[in-house]
Amino acid sequence: MQQVLKQDGEFRYIEEGSGPTLLVLHGLFGALSNFRDVLDEFRHNFRVVIPMMPIYELPVEDTHVRSLAAFILRFVQFKGYSSLNLLGNSLGGHVALVFSKDHPELVNSLILTGSSGLYENAMGGSFPRREDHDFIKAKVEYTFYDPATATKELVDEVFEIVNNKEKLIRILALAKSAIRHNMAEELHTFEMPVCLIWGKNDNITPPDVAEEFHKLLKHSSLFWIDQCGHAPMMERPAEFNAILKPWLNAMYAEKV
User: Fold this and answer.
1) Which three-class secondary structure state does DSSP give residue 196?
2) Residues 86, 113: Cα–Cα separation, whole Å
């Protein structure tokens, strides 16, 4: 992604376009570049905002899902955003769920793709051979349907993270936090429309997770992308955008 991160106080973020706010939350190993195609597509009709969550900066004892949701609240208040369309992948989806539960007055709609919050086969669960580059490569490839999506650049980035002791401690703390914080009993309270976009071949949050979200979120629509893993917006960006764009447009058309 060629866009330059803006720095305002404790916040680093990308902000492009104008219109309704589409606030994008990345996953545990997610980079801003994972949403390049979302940004390119939606910045023409939306203000697309992608903040960097402080996954590696929080004190270890505060490295959990709720702390990240509190960070997003500070960011939203700092920027003065309202009526958010929240898009979250993996851990970012979980953060979006916590934020939406605590501050529904700020959320217009919720878009989840490969979200944690119910249960998952956590990629970050353990790294017994973290110094083995081929092992890490296989771990990253497991995230996708097509192993070629795990580029050398992406594998090298994950390899660097898990071989940095301070970063690894926080990765494991967040992964455990996400597993412990099951939201099944809270989802029935959600009143905003929810778009679920799921890879049929997701190994991390398998299809039955999407079905359970769809069952528990009463105003949800579920869409599948075939031959796609845990990060549809990255692995199948054209299909992902082709689902999300009319869904968002229809929602705003109903309000006119």
Assistant:
1) strand
2) 11
Beta pairing, strands 21-25 & 220-225: unpaired
- The DSSP annotation for 75-135 comes to HHHHHT--SEEEEEETHHHHHHHHHHHH-GGGEEEEEEES--SS----TTS--TTTT-HHH
* Among 155, 141, 24, CA closest to 86: 24
What tokens does 131 get?
């110094």
Which CATH number is 6-121+182-255 given?
Answer: 3.40.50.1820
Q: Are the C-beta atoms of residues 108 and 192 closer than 8 Å to each other?
A: yes
- Hey, CA dihedral for 52, 55, 61, 117, is it positive or negative? positive
| Nearest alpha carbon to residue 68 among 47, 48, 51 | 51
Cβ–Cβ under 8 Å, residues 143 and 134? no
CA distance 32 to 1: 7
pTM: 0.92
Q: Residue 254 contacts by C-beta under 8 Å, 6 or more apart in sequence?
A: none
Residue 127 has a pLDDT of 56
Distance CA 25, CA 242 (A): 20
Q: What angle do CA 110, 7, 95 make, to 5 degrees?
A: 25
- pLDDT score of 132: 82
User: Residue 70 burial (CB < 10 Å; 0-12/13-18/19+)?
Assistant: middle
In this predicted model, what pLDDT tens digit does every residue of 172-212 receive, in sequence order?
Answer: 888 888 888 899 999 999 999 999 999 999 999 999 999 99
Tally of CB atoms within 10 A around 224: 16
Work out the number of other CB atoms within 10 angstroms of the CB of residue 54.
16
Q: In what order do the strands lie in the sheet with 6-8?
A: 6-8, 11-16, 47-51, 21-25, 84-89, 107-113, 194-199, 220-225
